[in-house]
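Q: What structure does this chain adopt?
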Amino acid sequence: MTTTLTGTKGKAKAGPGRAARPGDPGGRRRRRRGPAAYAVLVALFALAALMLIPFAVVVLNAVKTPAEYSANGPLALPEGISFEGITAFWDRTGFGQVLLNSAYISGSVAVLAVLLSVFNAYALGIGRIKGRMWVLVVLLLANTLPQEALVYPLYYLSKQVGLYDTRLSVIIVFTVIQSAFGTYLLSSVLAAFPRPLLEAARIDGASRWQVLRYVVVPVIRPTMAVLLVFFFVWTWNEFLIPLVFLISNDNQTVSVALGVLQGQRLMDATMSSAASLLGLLPTVLFFLIFQRTLSRGLTAGAIK
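A:
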C-alpha cells in the first residue's frame, strides 16, 4: 500500500498542473525568440539584399538593348526582355564549347584532387609515415606559394612533355595544387581517427585497402563532399594558369574567354553584363544543387 501511494504521488507531481523537472524531456518547452533575435534576422535579410544588388543590376543590364542602356542608364528597369547581348556573346565566344571545357576541367580536378587527398592523408594521418611533419610543412608552404611563381616552370615542363595547350595539362596542375590543401586538411582529421575502429577492422582480417574503403571513407565522407564542392568552384574561377596553358579557342575556359574578350574591347555594356551573368550562373546553380551536401559536411564534421 505504501509503495502504491508513493508511486501515485510521484505521478501526480509530474502531471500537467506541476512544473516539469529540469531533466524531464516531456516538460521541455520551446523557447520564445526575443526582440534581439528578430533584430538579427532583419539585419541578415537586409545584408543579403544589399549583397544581391550587384547581381540584380547585372541581370537587368543583360536583358537590355545597347540603345536602351545608352538612353536610360544602368539602373533603369528594362522596357522589355532582350537576349541580344546574351546571343551575341554566346556566338562570339562559342560559349557552349567554353562551358563544356570549364565543366570538364573543374569536375575532373575536383574528383581527382579529392581522391589524391584521401590517399595522401591516409598515409600521413593513419599510416604515420616517417617525416610526416616535414611533409605537412611542405604542403602548408605549397598552399601559400603564389601561382605567378609556378607559371614558368610549369610552362617549361608542359612544353617538354608535349602537353602544352591541352586540357589535360591544366587538370594535372590543378589536381596537384588543390590536393595539397586537401591532404593537409584530411591528414589532420585522420590523425584523430578513432583507433578502436582500425584495430577492430584489422582483427577481422581487413587489408589496408579494405580499412580505407569500408572504415575510413564512410566516416570522412562529409569532409570529402565539402572539398569536392570547393575544388570545383576554385578551379572554375582560376584565370592565370588556364590563360597561359590554353591558347587555342577550342580549349579555353569561361574565365579566360571573358578576360580575352574584355581585353580586346569587343563588348559593349550589355554584352559585358551578359558575359558576367553567363559566367556566374553555373557556379550559382552548382552551389544550389549541392547546398544540402555542403551544409551537412560543414555541420556534421569529419569524426562522429
